[in-house]
Amino acid sequence: MIGIIGIVLVFVMVIGGYLAAGGKLDIILKSLPYEMMIIGGAAAGAFVISNDTGNLKATFKHLGKVFKGPVWHEADYQDLLCLLFQLIRMARSNPVDLEEHIEDANSSDVFKAYPKILLDAEATELICDTLRSASMNYDDPNQVEEVLNKRIEAQFKHDLHPTHALQVMADGLPALGIVAAVLGVIKERLKNLLILA
């Protein structure tokens, strides 16, 4: 929802500022389809050229998130804390019982009590892997923390690839806008020369 509000705000401010400065809207409306085709088409082409198929798919998938809003809410974080509490309590009382839950989370009654967390494969895998690491390294908790931090950092960098791809494309849009403007000037100059001839 906030994404839609942002887009509407941009258009209202740009067009409103243009009209307030004495601009004529009919000129914009007449050239808008061509400008959008030149700038948008060139940007889309550059985006496709500079990214692989996986990054293109990830970008379109992430674009939907802008309009959907956050996936996780306060109740989900409470569920996560309850799940972790149950698993850690089980690990302290009987580590052998914990093993069956972290080896096959999909058939675990503890994980099934929190279906939204179970549906997120990355979160479930992170929880299980961390508990596996903790069970192997009880004498050195810093080692588990280091592995966990590296994994979260790697996932974070991976999730930022679509954002970086869009940023690179957005950085090139002013240059594409200048190309479209120059083409418009050339067209007008040619039209004036033809009228004079």
Number of helices: 10
As a percent range, the share of helical residues equals over 70%
Note poorly predicted spans. Answer: none
Tell me the domain tally. Answer: 2
General form: elongated
> By helix and strand content, what is the structural category?
mainly alpha
Distance from N terminus to C terminus (CA atoms, Å) equals: 55 Å
What does this structure look like?
This protein has 2 domains: 30-49 and 161-196, no CATH class; 74-159, no CATH class. The longest helix is centred in the C-terminal third of the chain and has 36 residues, at 161-196. The radius of gyration is 27 Å and the shape is elongated. The protein is built from 10 helices and no strands. Helices cover 86% and strands 0% of the residues. Helix 5 (95-103) packs antiparallel against helix 8. With 197 residues, the chain is mainly α. The model has no long low-confidence stretch (mean pLDDT 86).
